[in-house]
Design goal:
The chain is an alpha+beta fold. It contains seven helices and six strands. Strands 1, 2, 3, 4, 5 and 6 form a six-stranded antiparallel β-sheet that branches. α1 packs across α3.
């Protein structure tokens, strides 16, 4: 294996940031806001549509950047990490011949990568998000991405028995600011910068 030069990490970091900025512009019209370095969220009352990009090796072995996509979160989920519920994204990437890789130094296949990330969101993510937009679909459809624990937590939220601490944890994990974080006055509207919850 060719030795990694000292600037590899910096070049890859800059390349990923550039890709994230352009990706943000592409998916902003769909209502997604960038809340963390590689995380975009569209919040609803009891769930959040999540697009998370993850990069391969850290530190990078070379200038190649390979990005993958993850999906959804029940806000009342008790799990303390950012566990996302999703279809088999790698299988969808393979079946759709999506190319989510580029060379951060040469820029090779950069435009194709951004185009295909955007195409993946519009062709794969959005129909999936629409299918599971209603909580009843998440609870009853045979192909629901939720396991029984997540369904139980979602039912609790629907009946007013959700845990405030669990929701706050989810919002923090997703990078969504809360009233407490912002010291918002009680009479100010609280939409977390994402517009009305739907």
């Amino acid at each position: 294996m060719k030795p990694r030069s000292d600037d590899t990490s910096a070049v890859v970091r800059e390349g990923v940031e550039k890709a994230a900025r352009e990706f943000s512009e592409r998916i902003a019209p769909l209502g997604f806001s960038r809340t963390k370095r590689l995380l975009w969220v569209r919040r609803h009352l009891h769930t959040a549509d999540v697009i998370g990009l993850s990069r391969g090796f850290r530190p990078p072995l070379n200038y190649s950047v390979d990005l993958s996509i993850d999906f959804i979160r029940v806000l009342n989920d008790a799990f303390e990490g950012l566990a996302l519920n999703a279809p088999n994204a790698p299988a969808l990437v393979s079946a759709g011949r999506y190319h989510h890789r580029f060379n951060a130094k040469s820029g090779s296949t950069y435009e194709r990568c951004i185009d295909d990330l955007s195409r993946f969101v519009s062709s794969e993510c959005e129909p999936w998000f629409v299918r599971f937009r209603e909580v009843e679909a998440l609870l009853s459809f045979a192909d629901s991405p939720l396991g029984q624990p997540e369904k139980h937590r979602l039912r609790d939220a629907l009946t007013g028995n959700g845990e405030t601490s669990a929701v706050e944890r989810s919002l923090k994990l997703l990078g969504i600011s809360t009233r407490r974080d912002r010291n918002t006055k009680p009479d100010e509207p609280d939409n977390d910068g994402f517009g009305p919850e739907t």
